[in-house]
Write a structure and sequence with these properties.
By secondary structure, this protein is of the alpha/beta class. Helices cover 42% and strands 12% of the residues. The protein is built from 19 helices and 11 strands. Helix 18 packs antiparallel against helix 19. The radius of gyration is 22 Å and the shape is globular.
């Protein structure tokens, strides 16, 4: 299972919202008008197949999100989700039996299929929607060799630092505005409480270690900048580069410090045996003061926990080196087509529109970087904040680097390296071992 699949599947049903919420698309309140369909041909009765990694309850919400579009156009959308998406899609494409549309969780995988001429270029309507409603960074993820093949779909923002507003008030501390201030905050809380401020969990079955990669990615982007981050994700800057080691050292100041972790769970090595979602109850109960995790953590808090700026728990984005630096990592999907039929193009165009974004987001559990999305359609307050970050023109966004790397690295040696690092292996040896995962020409 890829990292993107793992992170999508782990979100609990509580995050998905009530199934009875009305659709926001197709004229419902909060949904911008226009851009909902492509072409004008007769497609009534046509079937369009879509294949992706989204399964179970989330797949049901996908079906619900485009129900009005199906009724309006007469197109029957058949969605199939699989946890073996990457392998099966390759087999089907090579065998001449691909779906009409695939929802790719990794830009690297999307680019691979486009470069091998499996995908068809996106129609003009889709490119127009992408250009109007997404940032240049997002449009670039759908562009391969100067040809635009697909628009983004959903999105996420990582690097949230969760905390208790009441505890912050009790301790007389404030949300930090820089990485240096975060370190000062950590030391202050430790001195006031005499306990480790941070709790962390890397355990995730066969994907154990992935929460650690998110830590490193956040620090590489903030400390080394976008150019180095992009080159690192592409394998042009090796893990053994001093700039990547700096990120490991900075994260290690927290995660490898026995005075700072692992609140409520044990010593530093307990991070590897602590389930990533188990930190949520600990933070809600006050056992730990700080934890680093994506927005989906809100679904792991005990029932009745008030997630709000003045509630039981809240979160702020990991700050940058300088105050006001809004730099974030995240994930999402890119929609690519194997067919250029009229019905397929109309579905592509709808999925790239604000109508679909508002429809799906109003059902709960996800957000989109589509600028036509009304943030109020996101039911969860952290998801509302996520939409605002994604829509802020001052935000610098970069896709999760491990999802951009080959699976042998991003979901292989990188995961394993984080586990070894927490278990006490030296940073230099870990970096060297991770780098061996890169395929050789």
């Amino acid at each position: 299972m890829t990292l993107s699949q793992r992170k999508r599947l782990i979100a609990p049903l509580a995050l998905l919202g009530a199934a009875g919420i009305a659709l926001a698309g197709c004229g419902a309140p909060g949904a911008p008008s226009g851009g909902g369909g492509g072409g004008g041909g007769d497609v009534d009765g046509e079937t369009v197949t879509i294949y992706g990694t989204i399964v179970e309850a989330e797949a049901e919400l996908l079906d619900e999100s485009w129900a009005d579009f199906e009724e309006e156009t007469g197109i029957d959308i058949k969605y199939e989700g699989s946890q073996d998406f990457e392998t099966q899609l390759g087999t089907r494409a090579q065998g001449g039996n691909p779906p009409d549309i695939a929802i790719f969780p990794q830009p690297g995988l999307f680019a691979d299929f486009a470069s091998r001429d499996f995908l068809v270029p996106a129609p003009e309507e889709v490119e127009a929607n992408a250009t109007e409603y997404w940032s240049e960074d997002w449009v670039n993820y759908g562009t391969v060799d100067d040809t635009f093949y697909g628009a983004p779909l959903m999105a996420s923002v990582k690097g949230w630092i969760w905390y208790s507003p009441a505890k912050f008030a009790e301790w007389g501390v404030e949300v930090p505005k820089t990485l240096d201030e975060l370190n000062t905050l950590t030391a202050t809380i430790q001195s006031k409480t005499g306990a480790a401020p941070w709790c962390a969990g890397f355990e995730s079955g066969t994907a154990t270690g992935w929460p650690g990669t998110d830590w490193i990615e956040d620090y590489v982007l903030r400390q080394a900048g976008t150019d180095v981050y992009d080159q690192w994700a592409a394998g042009e800057v090796p893990f053994t580069d001093p700039q990547i080691k700096t990120a490991f050292d900075s994260v290690g100041e927290i995660l490898l410090n026995p005075s700072y972790v692992n609140a409520g769970f044990g010593d530093v090595r307990s991070i590897n045996s602590t389930a990533f979602g188990a930190v949520a109850p600990a933070l809600a109960e006050g056992t730990c003061a700080l934890t680093h995790q994506a927005s989906f953590l809100s679904g792991f808090y005990p029932e009745g926990t008030n997630v709000a700026e003045d509630g039981d728990v809240w979160a702020f984005i990991l700050p940058g080196e300088t105050e006001g630096d809004v730099t974030v990592t995240g994930g999402g999907e890119i929609v690519g087509a194997f067919s250029d039929s009229e019905a397929t193009q109309q579905v592509q165009t709808y999925l790239s529109s604000p109508e679909w974004a508002n429809s799906r987001v109003s059902l709960g559990g996800v957000v989109s970087a589509n600028s036509g999305l009304d943030p109020e359609n996101a039911q969860d307050p952290i998801l509302q904040e996520t939409v605002k970050i994604l829509q802020d023109p001052e935000t610098t966004f970069r896709f999760d680097a491990s999802d951009l790397m080959p699976g042998a690295v991003g979901a292989g040696t990188f995961w394993k390296g984080m586990v070894d690092w927490v278990n006490g292996a030296s940073t230099d040896s870990v970096l060297t071992q991770i780098e061996t995962g890169w395929p050789t020409e």
